Amino acid sequence: MTEKGLKVRLMKDKLFKFIILSLSIISLAPLFLILFFVFERGLKVINWSFLTQLPKPVGVAGGGISNAIVGTLMLIAIACLVAVPLGIAAGVYLSESKKTKIAYFTRLTVDVLQGTPSIVIGIIAYLWIVLPMGKFSALSGGIALGLMTLPLVVRGSEEVLKLIPHDIREASLALGVPRYRTILKVIIPAGIPGIVSAILLGISRIAGETAPLLFTAFGNPFMNLNIFKPVNSLPLLIFNYAMSPYEDWQTIAWGASVVLILIVLGGNILSRIVVRKWQVQF
Amino acid sequence: MKWGKEGAFRGVLLIGTLVIGLIVFAILLSLLWGSLPVFKALGWRFFPGKNWNPVTDNFGALPFLLGTLITSFLALIISLPLSLSIAILLGEFLRVGRGSSFLKSMVDLIAAVPSVIYGFWGLMILVPLMRNIEIKLGVAPYGVGIMTASIILSVMIIPNTASIAREVIKLVPADLKEAAYSLGATRYEVVRKVILPYARSGIFAGVLLSLGRALGETMAVTMVIGNANEIPKSLFAPANTMASVIANEFTEATGDIHYSALIAIGITLFFVTTVINLIGRYGIKKLAIEE
Question: B2-287 adopts what CATH topology?
């Protein structure tokens, strides 16, 4: 009887291991399928002219995505100008005054901002910038993306600066260095790799964002360097071409997907390398 | 002089910090202000209203509320066994080593792939597949619809639950597990009777964060849900979610009430996701684990 009970229990254990393993494989399968299809269909499209030419009308062979690449870079640059100074200032403040009421509420608002759906951020950028200016623009799209990275930069810099040991700060203060110079010249430099890594992670997150750009940056079939005019971006181009009925355009969307995935992956990997190679270990 | 610089530095930091609070406050105000006209025109009929008709300026949000609820919960149900398996695998069976870190980066990669690419893949590969399945099942073969959107969503939200559940499973004290092993428990029994009960609240917090992500997810859903502004008749029928209707109609909104109705849907989405995220984050902070 007990012999039989034991067998059943061991069987259950084996079955459990089998189920866990197979469900884990099943959950990763879509990822591999997606990467496989994107690279299988997109890689053959990519060549030099694909990266440097402008899109062509339907039916004309060739055509590239240069305007979307430039647009994405522009949007990222604007987003960084918004998020980086503000984010680092708040991050430093939060790590310096951990328990004030202001710190408590700021952490709460950062949590709220981080959880805000991207489409809602799009509405906000539309209400704040597109409506008063009367037109879609790269500026509004960049600010929308900036609002999305802001929480990541704040949290990243706060976490990193908190970890810097007190000894270093006290050594600097003992030498008679004023508090603000200690923060600027000792604390922040020690935390720079972590902050850079948070920014890179933020960039790789917003590089693929589409929803907040639908009614801000809007998209543009031409090359545009003016921040007050609409620009195209890689995710917008993928969305528009994917939803189009033309096979040529869908092919271009696969190619653009490869470029976008490489940018996002690059940002992720770079952010890990920065921490691993540069971060001072205490 | 020295104090002046010190004060100026503190001031800059403080201003930067306060600006973030102000931004969030202003977001709330703008959404409230923007959604006012539709409430003035329709009152509270807006939420239970079943029809969405821009031509007659009659707006009811119920189809989208239902669309979001159904897709999100369906996605949670599909993804929970998957993300929990990964969490148990990484938190208990494969805690260290190359295989473990490879798996961990793969899970991170699921979160890193942009949502528009999930949508594109879903549209090109999953939708035809679903159409075939629907023909076999004998339901109307749209291909696009709630089920397709939920499947895509369920993949996208795996990392949120998996990474938090993994951390709490790792936090289960070794003493407890060893005590159970020493009594002759099998691994399955340890996981079932010791680890899962101990990690329950952490897993729940992870599920809430997944839910927050699923509710607000826009692009992938918009591309495969079929965009029908009506109450879904079945799990395979086309529908719309709160996020997808905004994505579809905002640039083409006709008239102030239409805009305002979309913004009102936006503020509803904002409130719901904020509450769910804050509860989830509170849960995580109580457990004092890092994301």
Answer: MetI-like fold (1.10.3720)
Q: Do B121 and A37 touch (CB under 8 A)?
A: yes
Q: Determine contact: B189 vs chain A, CB below 8 A.
A: yes
Q: Which of A81, A112, A188, A259 to mutate to test the interface with B (most CBs of B within 10 A)?
A: A112
Sequence ranges of the domains in chain B: 2-287
Q: What residue ranges do the domains of chain A occupy?
A: 63-278
Q: Give CATH for domain A63-278.
A: 1.10.3720.10
Strand partners for A14: none
Residue B58 parent element (H or E): strand B58-59
Cβ contacts of B273 on chain A, cutoff 8 Å: 115-117
CA distance linking residue A228 with residue B25, whole number of Å:
26
Q: What is the complex's ipTM, to 2 decimals?
A: 0.91
- pLDDT 10s digits, A28-83: 999 999 999 999 999 988 988 888 888 887 777 777 899 999 999 999 999 999 99
Tell me if chain A has a CB within 8 Å of the CB of B122.
no
Residues 50-79 of A with CB under 8 A from B: none
Three-state DSSP string of chain A: CHHHHHHHHHHHHHHHHHHHHHHHHHHHHHHHHHHHHHHHHHHHHCCHHHHHCCCCCCCCCCCCCHHHHHHHHHHHHHHHHHHHHHHHHHHHHHHHCCCCHHHHHHHHHHHHHHHCCHHHHHHHHHHHHHHHHCCCCHHHHHHHHHHHHHHHHHHHHHHHHHCCCHHHHHHHHHCCCCHHHHHHHHHHHHHHHHHHHHHHHHHHHHCCCCHHHCCCCECCCCCCCCCCCCECCHHHHHHHHHCCCCHHHHHHHHHHHHHHHHHHHHHHHHHHHHHHHHCCCC
**Residue A206: CB partners within 8 Å, gap ≥ 6?**
A75, A76, A79, A145, A148, A149
pLDDT in tens, A239-281: 999 998 888 889 999 999 999 999 999 999 998 888 887 766 6
